Structure formats: C-alpha cells, structure tokens
Amino acid sequence: MTTNPFISLDRSYRNYIDGSFAEGSSGRIDVINPATGDVIARVPETDASEVDRAVAAARRAQDGWERLPAITRAGYLRQISAKVREHRLALADVIVKEQGKVPALAQVEVDFTADYIDYMAEWARRIEGEVLTSDRPNETMLLLRKPVGVVAGILPWNFPFFLIARKMAPALVTGNSIVIKPSEETPINAYIFAELVAQTDLPKGVFNLIGGYGRTAGEALVAHPGVDLITFTGSVGTGSHIMQVAGRNLTRVNLELGGKAPAIVLKDADLDLAATAIFNSRVINTGQVCNCAERVYVAREVHDELVGKLKVLFESTRYGDPSVDEDLDMGPLVNAAGLQKVAEAVDLARKQGATVVTGGKVADRGTGFHYEPTLICGATADMDIMRRETFGPVLPVQKVESLEEAIALANDSDYGLTSSIYTRDLNSALKAARELKFGETYINRENFEAMQGFHAGRRKSGIGGADGKHGLYEFTETHVVYIKGE
Ligand code: NAD
Asked: What are the residue boundaries of the structural domains of the chain, listed by start?
C-alpha cells in the first residue's frame, strides 16, 4: 500500500488564519481510522483566542474582498478547484482513512467538490439585484444584493470535504470572508484543503480554518459578535443549541440538519428499481447520509415481494475496511458512539415489536466500528426506528393500505428534508409531489441532490438551504436604494 503524504502521526496540521499557519492551542485531538480503530493523526485543539484571531482576520479582509469585481473573486475560486483536482487521489484517500468511505464514493466527493466550486464561480456574472417601481415621481428604486460579511461555517463529518465547498464557494463569490471549523472526527482533509488554498493567490484572511471540538472552538465561533452569518450542517440538537447561542447577538443562521427520509413504494412500482435504489441509498456511506431513505412505506399487495428483494440485496452487501478492500458497498460507522447508537436503535426496535429480517448486530470485522446491514419489517408509526434518525445501515419497513396513508405517515415526522416515491402512475406521483411536506422529493430514484437544486429541510431538518441560486442568495443581504431625481 502506498503511503499518503497527507496522513502521518509525525505530520503537523495547523490552523490557517490571515494567510499564515498557526499551531493552535496546546491540546491535541486524536484522529481515528474508523475501520481499524487506529490513531492516524494528531491535530490541534483551538481555544477562544485563536477563534478571535480568525474572526478578526476575516473581518479585516472582507471589505477589500467585497470591493473586487465578482469575476475576479471567481478567478481565485477556480485556482482552488484546480488545486483540488491536482491532488484528487490523495485527498480521496484521506477521506477513506479518516471517515471510512469506500474509495469510489470518496473520489466522487472530491471531484464533485471541485465541480461545485467551479459552479459557484460561474455565478459571478449572475448575482443580480432588481429595479423596483417607485410610488413617487422621478424616483428610481434599486434593490442591491450585498454580502452578509463574515461567515462562520461549521461542518459535520459525513461529507467533510464537500461541505467545505458548499459553505466557502457561495460565501466567497458573493463577497463574504469565511472561518471554517471542520468536525473533530474528520479534520485532516480540511487542514489539507487550507494548505492547498495557501498555494493560491487568494488574499489573506478571506479564507480561514480552525480545528477543534464543538464545545470549545465551535461554541466560541458561534458566540462571537464579529460573525454575521453562521452556516451549520450537523445534528438537530447541535443546530438548536447554535441557534440559541446565535440569538444573543442576533446572528443570522442557516441550518442544514438531520433527516428521516420516507420512501413510499406503491403497488404499481417497478419493484426491482425500488429495491435497488432504496438499498443503495441505505448502505451508501454506511447509511450516514442526511437524505437517504430511512423508513419505507410499502403497499400491502407488494410488501412481501419488496421485502424479499431487499433481503437478497442486504445479504449481498460487501463491507469491511475500505483501505484494504477497494471493492465494497460500505465501510464502518464513523466512531464508537455511532456504532452504539445504531446497535441500540435496532435493539429497541426489537423490543418494540419489529422483526429483524437480516442483520441486526455488531459485525465481526476486527477492531473497527462495523455494523451488519440490517433490514427490519413489521415496523409501526409509534416505533422509535420510524421516528428517530438512525444514521446507519438499517432499514425499517412498514406496510400501508393506500397512498393517502403513506403520505400522512411520511408527513407525521419531526424531520422534513427529503422523501421519495416509487410508482408508474403519473397522478400518484403528482399527488405525492403536492402533498409531501419536505424540502425535496425524488420520484423513482433516491439521492443525491444536484448542485443547481435547493437542498433545504422543513420542520426540524433546518432553516434555509444550500445550492443553486437560492443557496447562493442565502449569503447575501438586500439593500434598497431610493434615487430621487429632479
Ligand atoms: P454534530 O451536530 O455532532 O456536529 C457538527 C459540527 O458541530 C461539528 O463540527 C461539531 O464540532 C460542531 N459542534 C458541536 N457542538 C457545538 C457547539 N456547541 N457549538 C458549535 N459547534 C458545535 O453532527 P455530526 O454528527 O457531525 O453530523 C451528523 C448529522 O449531520 C446528522 O444528523 C446528519 O443528518 C446531519 N447532516 C445534515 C446534512 C444536511 O444537508 N441537512 C448534511 C450532512 C449531515
């Protein structure tokens, strides 16, 4: 196996503040390969004074950055995407080792990240205001779109590299500066990203990166009065806490939170297509994806056939250590806590009366955090497995009598991120599109979302959204100008 120059216990990983690298505070955080449990790197903790420095640097840089033509800002973004492409293989390998993704998916993540940065750079000539009609004679009204100012981007571990771009690219092209804090579970890729940014001509202070734990570095960033917008992706609990802390300074928030995506399968569905799509979505990234099918509502007439097809697929899942075996459907869960959470969720489902069709226990795969791909049937609406986000390779199935019942059960959830329906009937698909109360609905397919779409959750799945024109404008504020003529 070739060694990766980006990963070593002897390598130093440093915060990137004001165009320079800084050691962080004295504490160190171990980064663990979840497939083996081995420590693969040690990264710095960050204290509040470092957070102060990062926010101050972003503040100093923002004004000059905003004054540059947007197309010039886009040019810097393209330098960054070129650097990502130059190191695409080693970056993907970092994601395999620190997050446990299978190599093919890690490569998709890296390549998509470069494409996403370019896509957001393309918006430079399309950031548009409006000319409004005035009630007064000889008056012109302009609605301008301006950057919010200093953005704080706080990231989860499940798509750690892509999420940097999803926050940074729209923030920078619209004229904001940014401070990014990656997850303490998966920080290596983010430190390397900062090293690549340092190799471009991006003006200092526009992009800053600090590591550290959520309760220390994250909390200090969120509470900082110098931050104008917090864009956070992570769990509902942390999102709710961040919103409360942000409330002290009335800092704007953009929250991309958890999901419990329902997949509805009707009796006229193509069952092979439905089973394959739902299975793939459930095991991709070991079930740790916010918009993958987490609960199935299937018509009584085709219940047994669908469960049979899913069982075959679940039992054929190839899983293990993705840095040893490249050809896998899934790797480990991200950490011991994630493994315990999934195991407890399945045990509770059993206690509450559901039936485990296949899987259902911690997998015998050596020392890492592996759980068996698990299919559950006989689930009912009151069971926790149908209500709480599991974030693992576990799929519960519930039988329904009608499309109306399926839609009502799907909507009866704290979460409202994504949903899907499998049917050959246009009227059923259109009814679902009208009546499902979610930010996204996939018809005859599962995730992923497109960069030109708008990824946004209803209810506790979030506030605001990301991607496309609407995601871009989350990083702007309006400014109306009244021009009174003679
Ligand atoms: P998490 O909430 O545990 O952590 C996310 C980030 O918040 C980390 O960087 C962490 O250090 C930081 N943090 C923790 N406490 C903090 C605090 N008090 N102040 C500031 N920052 C703090 O989430 P996670 O386990 O990393 O990610 C998994 C969750 O993310 C799942 O619920 C998943 O559904 C969600 N997610 C949502 C989307 C989406 O687009 N809606 C995408 C990916 C993941």
From this structure: 15-257+461-482, 261-450
Contact 41, 13 (CB under 8 A): yes
- Give the span between the Cα atoms of 26 and 28, in whole angstroms: 7
Q: Which of 45, 109, 184, 290 is catalytic?
A: 290
- Catalytic-residue membership of 377: no
CA distance 98 to 101: 8
**DSSP-assigned states of every residue in 51-71:** HHHHHHHHHHHHHHHHHS-HH
449-466 residue pLDDT tens: 999 999 999 999 999 999
Q: Is the pLDDT of residue 1 over 70?
A: no
What pLDDT is stored for residue 251 in this prediction? 98
pLDDT number for residue 364:
85
| 270 Cα distance to chain centroid | 30
* Atom 13 of ligand 1: nearest residue by CA position: 214
Residue 290 appears among annotated catalytic residues: yes
Residues 417/462, Cβ–Cβ less than 8 Å: yes
CA distance 105 to 100: 10
Question: How distant, in Å, are the alpha carbons of 30, 112, 174, 241, 359 from that of 284?
Answer: 26, 16, 33, 29, 16
For the chain, the average pLDDT equals 97
**Mean pLDDT within 247-275:** 98
Task: Check residue 2 and give its pLDDT.
Answer: 63
Q: Which CATH superfamily is domain 15-257+461-482 in?
A: Aldehyde Dehydrogenase; Chain A, domain 1 (3.40.605.10)
Whether 205 and 179 have beta carbons less than 8 Å apart is answered as no
CB 98 within 8 Å of CB 31: yes
* Pick from 448, 385, 283: nearest CA to 440: 448
3-class state of residue 84 by DSSP: helix
Q: Is 242 in the pocket of ligand 1 (CB under 6 A)?
A: yes
Cis peptide bond upstream of 448, omega within 30? yes
Tokens describing residue 229: 């917008």
Asked: is 261-450 a CATH 3.30.70.1350 domain? The reply is: no
Residue of 215, 200, 151, 141 lying closest to 178 (CA atoms): 151
CB of 238 closer than 6 A to ligand 1?
yes
